[in-house]
Design goal:
The protein is mainly α. The protein is built from eleven helices and four strands, in the order αααβαβαααααβαβα.
């Protein structure tokens, strides 16, 4: 038990350090390439912080465990939006650009709505998985075409090689630290008699979203809130289009384990970002928006514990 606790603490430190270096390296790459912080957050950082979900969902698909593949993505996306954006916004309001309003947020909502429709239909087939992957490829092309940066920075520039190395090192630390954190948390939970269901609902979805949480907090602390927003929207799109796309191609996903409450909260989590974009002050996800997101997350968590 003591060794497991030590692993938990070390892995958490690894995630924090990895996120810090990832934000620095990714921001430097964005400036060198003339690409906005948001697009870097949406792509490089979004993909990196979604790697734990990729591993869990694809492993579930290979083993024929549809509930694991789909539940992990749904739980992570709800966690990303309601808890991570909520906490981040309460600490430091997150700016929303006109591009976010016109394209990025509506795309995230449309992708979520498509998944909800398939869940109601009852299955995510191999054909749907291929469509998801094609949509993902198209969206990435669109992001890089429209994501040129207009920002001028007075910060001391990091060398290109150093930026790439820090980004790779940060991603590696995030992925490894996140995996050890999840494994250690599950081990501790089992040793004190916590149920498998509770572990899946809390530690698995929350643990695989730990990289997004730390990355967002550090990005906002460094006044890179567009990178933080890009990380969350990017991770959510990655989770649905790429991760579920791959999982469904491997093995069609049965959606029968997902209930209407899960679908409603998943869709609501995306709509709350849109609401923040048009009702918040100064085009920001403000502190009151963050509090509302956290209240919805708490309500959903209580519902999961009581009803399942």
């Amino acid at each position: 038990m003591i060794l497991t606790i030590i692993k938990l603490i070390v892995s958490l430190a690894l995630v924090v350090i990895g996120a810090d270096k990832l934000v620095d390296g990714a921001s430097a790459i964005a400036k060198k390439a003339g690409i906005s912080d948001f697009v870097i957050g949406l792509t490089i950082v979004g993909f990196g912080t979604s790697c734990p979900e990729l591993v869990v969902s694809v492993t579930g698909a290979l083993e024929g465990l549809s509930a694991v593949s789909l539940g992990n993505v749904i739980g992570s996306n709800i966690f990303n939006t309601l808890l991570i954006l909520g906490i981040t916004a309460v600490i430091s309001p997150i700016a929303i650009s006109s591009q976010n309003k016109k394209t990025d947020i509506p795309v995230a909502i449309a992708v979520t709505a498509l998944l909800c429709a398939l869940i109601l239909y009852g299955t995510v087939s191999r054909v749907a998985g291929l469509v998801f992957l094609l949509l993902f490829a198209g969206y990435m092309v669109l992001c890089f075409k429209t994501g040129q940066s207009t920002e001028q920075s007075s910060e001391k520039a990091m060398g290109t090689t150093a930026a790439i190395l820090w980004t790779i090192a940060g991603l590696t630390a995030l992925i490894l630290g996140g995996k050890v954190f999840v494994d250690s948390s599950v081990s501790i939970a089992r040793s004190i008699g916590v149920s498998e269901k509770f572990i899946a609902i809390t530690l698995l979805a929350g643990g695989t979203s730990l990289p997004e949480l730390v990355t967002c907090l550090i990005a906002c602390a460094k006044h890179k809130d567009q990178l933080a927003l890009g990380n969350i929207l990017g991770s959510n799109v990655f989770n649905i289009l790429l991760i579920l796309g791959i999982s469904a191609v491997i093995n069609p996903i049965d959606c029968s384990a997902i209930n209407h409450t899960d679908i409603i909260v998943l869709m609501l989590s995306s709509l709350l970002i849109l609401m923040s974009a048009f009702t918040g002050r100064n085009n920001k996800i403000g502190r009151y928006d963050g509090i509302l997101m956290l209240m919805v997350e708490i309500g959903y968590f209580i519902n999961l514990i009581i009803i399942g």
